[in-house]
Specification:
By secondary structure, the chain is of the alpha+beta class. It has 13 helices and 39 strands.
Length: 677
């Protein structure tokens, strides 16, 4: 299948209304029909399950792109050029979402669809959204290229279409003037999310060089000011701007709000818009600093901590004025504006442990192979479907020179040496399993993956990992959860943890929203090398929001919280701060293709700091590998590779924006390529 995402500006680039054009082309052979428990559904490249519970499982292809400042998406039109029947009589499986702590229930069929022979879907460009990411405007939609008649079982696929998106000026959209540092961090992240990154400079927020305030703040009770002072001093030297301690009492005395949480958010919003704030570390156990979401979907209520409330600063999160926050009716756009983390405790000894491990991780890191070692734990979620699928997908994004331990649950057995491997040293850990507040778990006994039972055996204090998981409730901050315990265990644990405060959500046998977020995290961390943990975590959510429309995605985006300093630099990308050693300074580089844009063949120059096994791969804008330019050993020094514009099967790639990624033993590099046919 070939999807063309070339953006064509149809109006003056400075206009406040206009249109963007896309084209979509596949062949019938690109559609794979599969079955699950006696029901059918199609698979296509770049396709994601996109409809709600009980609707036919027909995948859609996401499109995300920049639009000008002060505008919103207005309309999408689709002109179908070719449509082909898929031979057979098909009963398309209804979508069944379920939390990871439940087995899938019985199938629910939307009667108005399944008892009709009207074409579904009636429209093919769906779920149009506009939002603001640190002043940049982002639009997205999903294109569903299928036509299904349920009673007759007929299924056809659109193999060629033109799509036109129109946008218009909207006076309610806030235009921001920000610092160059705020803009550059957002621009660097959006470059790997939108399909028209060439517009980042033109459609950027305006520059306000007069904004002068701390780029990084830590917010806590006055009791902890002295304890936090060493971290404030450290961040003064590492964030590219000043750092500051801010007391809750000072915020409450100087900012209004319905409650303490709103006062804190109003402070952050003011400092972001008027003083150049980028990072916020919030200190506090469950209580006055925790916003509890009231989001409800299909009768399921989140009712859990959402620190996205402090990161997504558009609007009030209470659009309907009922003082229930994060609901569908509250007008959230879900894009991060600043980067937020939390030290979730009010106890002096625990906070001291978190401060000390953060400083030691960056100032005096332990050398060794642990820095390039990952641990992937794949538990069975709904036997026989399990976490191996998402773990293997993550593994493909980890650099080739890393050591990757894969512990997977197969049948009724699984390895159980995960604590030993963590003690030997890993820098990244993905426990994909079940969860409760007391830990993450395998499906079968012994079921403790990382839990209250075995976490006390961790002795990895000098080799602390970053940990992220889909597990239910393992980050339930209203309890003393395993996420918190891993952050202050004196003998080890983690330096940053990203867990759910509520339930994880899946879609067997497809990837569900929790799994998609974990893949986005691996994209940002390994493929795009966003190695400030808070920036990486927020951009992963931005990537998910700008991508597929997935039922329950709002739950996942709100509940997946970061415990740790958002400015923490992931150790494989550590460049040396203060008096610490300089690690991985010499990295490979890729130059822009020549010519670029290219109509066919081009050359791409590289520079290798050392010889080693290397792959140079072309990815489309959804992160799918579409062609391999080189795989083998490259010698140290400068050189170039040629690319003929074809995929691995020899077919011409369509017009569009692509990312070329070099991955090798000395590190990774990337560049962008525009292909025009």
């Amino acid at each position: 299948m070939r999807i063309v995402l070339l953006v064509v500006l149809a109006v003056c680039m400075f206009a406040t209304a206009g249109e963007l054009s896309f084209s979509y082309d596949i062949s019938l052979s690109d559609v794979e029909m599969t079955s699950f428990e006696g029901y059918d559904f199609p698979l296509i490249e770049n396709g994601y399950v996109t409809f709600d519970d009980g609707y036919p499982n027909l995948p859609g292809v996401p499109y995300s792109f920049l639009i000008p400042q002060g505008t919103v998406l207005e309309d999408i039109t689709v002109e179908i050029h070719e449509i082909q029947d898929i031979e057979g009589n098909w009963t398309i499986d209804p979508i069944r979402y379920c939390s990871l702590n439940q087995m899938p229930g019985s199938r629910t069929f939307i009667s108005s669809i399944y008892n009709s022979d009207q074409v579904f879907p009636s429209e093919h460009a769906l779920f149009m959204q506009s939002g603001s990411k640190t002043g940049f405007r982002v639009g997205n939609f999903v294109f569903v290229p299928f036509k299904y008649r349920p009673l007759s079982g007929d299924l056809s696929v659109i193999t060629s279409a033109s799509i036109t998106v129109t946008y218009r000026e909207d006076a309610s959209v806030e235009r921001l003037s920000l610092t160059d540092q705020q803009i550059d961090i957002a621009k660097n992240g959006l470059r790997n999310i939108v399909s028209n990154p060439e517009m980042l400079d033109l459609w950027s927020p305006s520059l306000s060089p007069n904004l002068r305030g701390p780029a990084w703040v830590v917010i806590s009770d006055t009791l902890h000011e002295d304890l936090l002072a060493p971290l404030v001093t450290h961040r003064n030297n590492t964030t590219g701007g000043s750092a500051a301690y801010v007391s809750l009492d000072w915020i409450y005395s100087n900012y209004t709000g319905y409650d303490t949480q709103e006062q804190i958010r109003n402070y952050l919003k003011d400092r972001f818009e008027n003083y150049g704030l980028i990072y916020a570390l919030i200190v506090g156990d469950f209580g006055e600093t925790h916003r509890v979401s009231s989001l409800t979907i299909s009768g399921q209520s989140l009712d859990a901590t959402t620190d996205l409330y402090y990161s997504d600063l558009d609007g009030t999160w209470d659009g309907d004025g009922d003082h229930l926050y994060g609901e569908y009716s509250d007008g959230l756009d879900y894009y991060s504006d600043i980067y937020v983390g939390r030290f979730s405790s009010n106890m002096q000894d625990r906070l001291e442990q978190m401060v000390n491990r953060t400083l030691a991780y960056e100032q005096t890191p332990t050398a060794g192979t642990w820095q390039n070692t990952a641990l992937l734990l794949g538990g069975l979620l709904w036997p026989p479907y399990g976490g191996q699928t998402v773990c293997d997908t993550i593994a493909k994004r980890i650099p080739l020179d890393w050591t990757v331990h894969k512990l997977y649950e197969v049948g009724s057995t699984h390895p159980n040496n995960q604590i030993d491997l963590m003690n030997e040293g890993v820098s990244f850990c993905e426990p994909t399993g079940h969860g409760y507040s007391m830990g993450t778990f395998w499906y079968y006994d012994p079921d403790d993956m990382i839990s209250n039972v075995n976490y006390l055996d961790l002795t990895n204090i000098d080799m602390l990992p970053v940990i992220s998981s889909i597990a239910c409730l393992a980050g339930k901050l209203s309890a003393t959860c395993i996420a918190e315990k891993l952050m202050y265990l004196p003998t080890g644990g983690a330096v940053a943890v990203m867990f759910n405060s509520g339930n994880g959500w899946g879609l067997p046998p497809n990837l569900g929203p929790s799994e998609i977020l974990e893949i986005c995290i691996s994209d940002q961390l390994f493929t795009y090398e966003q190695q400030e943990i808070g920036v990486m975590h927020s951009l992963a959510k931005d990537q998910m929001r700008a991508g597929p429309h997935v039922y329950f995605e709002e739950f996942v985006l709100q509940e997946h919280n970061l415990l740790g300093d958002p400015a923490l630099l992931f150790i494989p990308g550590y460049l040396g701060v203060e008096d610490g050693p300089e690690l991985n300074v010499l990295l490979p580089s890729l130059s822009a293709p020549v010519p670029n844009p290219t109509v066919g063949s081009c050359y791409i120059a590289y520079d290798m700091p050392s010889a080693g096994m290397t792959e140079i791969v072309v990815y489309d804008i959804t992160g799918r590998a579409v062609g391999t330019i080189f795989s083998g050993t490259l010698q140290a020094g400068s050189g170039s590779v040629s690319f003929d514009g074809r995929d691995n099967s020899g077919n011409l790639l369509p017009s569009g924006c692509y990312t070329v990624v070099l991955t090798g033993t000395s590190g990774s590099a990337a560049t962008r390529m525009m292909l025009i046919r």
